[in-house]
Amino acid sequence: MSRRLLLAAVATAIAAAVAPAIALAAPCDPIQTTPHFRGEVPSPQQVLGFPIGAQEVTAAQINQYIAAVDAASTRVTSGTFATSWEGRPLEYAIVGRPENASPTGLAAVRADAAALRNPSTTNAAQIAARAPAILWLAGNVHGGEESGADADLRILYELADRDDCAAQQILDNAVVVIVPTQNPDGREHETRQNHYHFDLNRDWFARTQPETDGKLELIRQYPPVLFLDVHEMGGQHYFFPPNKDPIYHEVADNIIDWQDKLYGPAIQAEFDRQRIQYFNDDLYDFFALVYGDTVPSVGFGANGMTFEKYNFASIAERAYEHYVSQWVSISTAALNRSSILSTWHQEYVDAYNEGVNGRLEPNFVNDKGSKLQFQVPTGRVRHYFLLDDPDKQAELQSLVRRLQRMDVSVYRLTAPLTVSDFRPYGRSPRATTLPAGTYWIPMAQQQKHWIQGMLNEDTYVAFPYFYDISGWSNPLLLNVRGGRSGQVLSPSAALVSSQAEPAAPALPADVPRIAVFQTSGGGADSFGWLSYLFDQVWHVSFDRVTASDIAAGALADYDLLIATEGNPEVANTALGAKGRRALADWVTSGGRYIGWGGGAVLAGRTRLTTNTFADPHSDVAGALLRVNVDEGSPLADGVGDEGYTFYDYDPVMRATNPSYVVASYPAAETQDFYVSGFADGEEELGGTAAITDEPAGLGRVVLFGSEPNFRAYTLGMRKVLWNALFGEEPSAGAALRRAAVLDAAAASATSTTTTGFNGIRLTVYGRSAATARAVLDRAGADYRVLRSAGKVSFLIASPGGAEGRLAVTLGPAVRRSGADVIVFVAPS
Ligand SMILES: [Zn+2]
After folding, report:
1. CA 155–ligand 1 middle distance (angstroms)
2. 3-state helix/strand/coil string of 701-745
3. Same domain, 592 and 724
4. Least confident window among 122-136, 389-403, 751-765
5. What is the distance in A from the centroid of ligand 1 to the CA of 56?
6. Is 58 within a domain?
7. Can you state the angle between helices 59-72 and 147-161, rounded to 10 degrees?
8. Cα of 233 to ligand 1 centre, how many Å?
9. Residue 239 C-alpha to ligand 1 middle, in angstroms?
10. Structural domain total, the chain
11. Average pLDDT for residues 559-571, to the nearest whole number?
């Protein structure tokens, strides 16, 4: 969504149809009640040799303790929902009254939850009156943020053994699913990410990693009304909801209501009583459908909440405060069980009815001081369609499977369907006839919010403060054609059966020998994502080479070198004159260089390309941009004449020779130019190159301006990468290769300073530059300034990354300052 193209924002009153949630007073105080232990279940001290809070438990100790409690207690059933890449089992425990936690009891719990999620269930009131609420506690998704798991073991122990009224009121009304660690490999290595450098709190919709995929299958079996995702961060005061702006528009109103009126006040009262310092009711991204709060909310109707505790506090303090916030939350849910379950069912009825009427939920802002900037268009959306395409069978299968595994019903047309208002992605509506075989996803079903979340043309950002990406439309990520309609239609169609994961494409007989150069420490994610793709999806072997390996002539053993995202300055310096010469000699004598992001800029620095590179002056916060693709290029095999880059403050790449361009951004003033997600100043990309394929002596240089394997989300661009690795040589190549020599004189004018930067980005209108600067200076921030017409961008170092002190505290401080903000983006 471009700011230019936005409809005038109309502040729409929120349909306040939901009855206010009023917390019932606890007949028995959740925290102040003196615990009474039956002594039937071994304590953490007895099993592990130390009490919770004395030291951090290990991943193995988590599983050891779960097994001990399961063995001792009829209140507990445990199991394994996934195995990490490094072979660690991810265990869960379900705690409830023995009759609920038994195999038959759990089958009834699952059946009741499924019935409540079904909008056509007629006895929902009776089910809500008797069924336990399913509540989830999930810790340690970021491996270095340990204490959620420690707190969870304490809660497991207390729920399994206590018989006082405070524990009993939870057990009488709930089953609690406890997942102490969502990332055992990261826990063992004290890394935020998992083995392949995926941030598992960004993997929720794509489910590329086993830790996430197994978790979502367990959630589907035990869908929560409350999901707590427990973290640590750099700010000193504890954070719990109410959040939060921006909020994704398809989060149901009752969830915001639960946070604002039920859970938030309950936790706040207890923290006030204990004088634990906290902040809430402030900026906190509840927007991107990649997190452990937004996905349980939009996908399962749960109240998804993120808790954050200062990561430099002692393990005793971290585990204690996470214990308090979670114990109060599950007590609050238990006490309000019946009304929560009724509301939960009504949420699905409402979603279905919104689907029938083709109504999208409007945007709103929740916090005092936030100003609604953009509204959701009011046009009707009743159906999505995905066009069948012989070249896109694998992508279509992946997307259909992804929808089905979130309980979306997908159909296929059995007869042609005439649609008068078919609106292809990023295009204007037109009348068309969709052929039989087209996939049809009606919005009139229980997963209406999730369907919009996945198949949207745009995310309709309400308020431009981001902690992550702003666009994730799945058909665009996969480069599958389709569109939507607001018409009332009755297609002839058949339900599509459960789809399997498509097989990986067959490798050619002669697989090239591949070396991968991780351009710098900042490129660890990109390198990890590629390693995952090679090891686990394509089953291609490769070697990692360093700058000194290259300088020492190591490339002689390889056909192909990949330079991933990272800082090109660091890589260029590391190569030195000798490394640059070795690289150029290898390419000109027949090697193939493939680079993206900083790896593309490095080709400019090392004079392997005639492309030029410049810093972006636009603000495109992790969004999808359409590119025109030259179908004559072998890189376009199976791609079609257009695609989408995942653009995230990447260098602006210009080709000096247009015949080398494989994909380019359309001219900004044309209808083809299209952004899905937040963008400001994106016009500067119009007409520039997205992918080039250039002869260099006997070799070849293929450059992607943006990461083609972003978090393994971008299956559309991944196909271009496959073609670059394993596809045909360019047809013009034979002649060019004879003639061309690397023209160092014409080589790249390269002046990028922001490539590889992964800190906080703040862009304000020029009139607010001084105000913003004062906020940054007061916070002790270290920043650089980029100026462009009418606006000023600050690139701010963020020690501690996405949950560092500045990443958490600067957004609210900037908003309070009254600065006129174009965008605030925390590091991803
Ligand atoms: Zn975290």
Report:
1. 20
2. EEEECCCCCHHHCCHHHHHHHHHHHHCCCCCCHHHHHHHCCCCHH
3. yes
4. 751-765
5. 17
6. yes
7. 10
8. 6
9. 12
10. 4
11. 94
pLDDT band at 18 (very low <50, low <70, confident <90, very high): very low
CA of 309 to the centre of ligand 1 (A): 9
- Distance between Cα 561 and ligand 1 center (Å): 34
Distance CA 712, CA 604 (A): 26
Closest CA to 179 of 55, 66, 328: 66
Ligand 1 centroid–CA 168 distance in Å is: 31
Find the CATH number of the domain harbouring 769.
3.30.70.120
pLDDT at 8: 31
Asked whether residue 507 is domain-assigned, the answer is no
Whether residue 327 sits in one domain with residue 394: no
Compute the distance from residue 308 Cα to the ligand 1 centre, in Å: 7
CA 529 – ligand 1 centroid, Å:
19
Same domain, 811 and 673: no
- pTM here is 0.94
Q: Supply the pLDDT for residue 12.
A: 30
Indicate whether 425 belongs to any domain: yes
Q: Give the DSSP letter of residue 245.
A: S
Average pLDDT on 702-731 reads 95
Query: What is the per-residue pLDDT for 275?
Result: 97
> What confidence score (pLDDT) does residue 19 get?
44
Report the distance separating Cα 69 and Cα 42, nearest Å.
Answer: 7
Q: How far is the CA of 182 from the centre of ligand 1 (A)?
A: 11
What is the full DSSP assignment across 98-145?
Answer: HHHHSHHHHHHHHHHHHHHH-TT-S-HHHHHHHSPEEEEEEE-SSTT-
Q: Which tens digit of pLDDT belongs to each residue from 367-402?
A: 777 889 899 999 999 999 999 999 999 999 999 999
Q: Which residue has the tokens 């509540």?
A: 135
Q: What is the pLDDT of residues 260-310, one digit of tens each?
A: 999 999 999 999 999 999 988 777 789 999 999 999 999 999 999 999 999
Q: Identify the domain containing residue 296 by its residue range.
A: 3-25+38-354
What is the rounded distance in angstroms from the CA atom of residue 755 to the CA atom of residue 276?
A: 41
790 and 737 together in one domain: no
Residue 199 alpha carbon to ligand 1 centre in Å = 9
Report if residue 246 sits inside a domain: yes
- What distance in angstroms lies between residue 637's CA and the mean position of ligand 1's atoms? 40
**Residue 827 pLDDT > 70:** yes
CA of residue 204 to ligand 1 center, whole Å: 14
- Over residues 137-196, the pLDDT tens digits come to 999 999 999 999 999 999 999 999 999 999 999 999 999 999 999 999 999 999 999 999
Contact 666, 698 (CB under 8 A): no
Q: How far is the CA of 141 from the centre of ligand 1 (A)?
A: 7
Res 746 pLDDT > 90: no
Distance 702 CA to ligand 1 centre (A): 36
Instruction: Compute the radius of gyration of the chain from its Cα atoms.
Output: 27
* Ligand 1 centroid to residue 306 C-alpha, Å: 9
**Cα 143 to ligand 1 centroid, rounded to whole Å:** 8
The yes-or-no verdict on residue 743 having pLDDT over 60 is: no
Ligand 1 center to 212 CA (angstroms): 15
Tell me the H-state helices in 358-477. Answer: 393-404, 448-455, 474-477
Ligand 1: centre distance to CA 89 (Å): 21
803: CA distance to ligand 1 center in Å?
Answer: 6
User: Residue 186 C-alpha to ligand 1 middle, in angstroms?
Assistant: 12
Task: Inform me whether the pLDDT recorded for 16 exceeds 50.
Answer: no
> What is the Å distance from ligand 1's center to 409 Cα?
33
Distance CA 378, CA 388 (A): 28
Same domain, 396 and 487: yes
The CA 184 to ligand 1 mean position distance, Å, reads: 14
Residue 662 burial by CB count (10 A; 0-12/13-18/19+): exposed, middle or buried?
buried
Cα(225) to centroid(ligand 1), Å: 22
CA 138 / ligand 1 centre spacing (Å): 12
> What's the confidence (pLDDT) of residue 748?
56
Q: How far is the CA of 145 from the centre of ligand 1 (A)?
A: 6
CA distance 445 to 118: 9
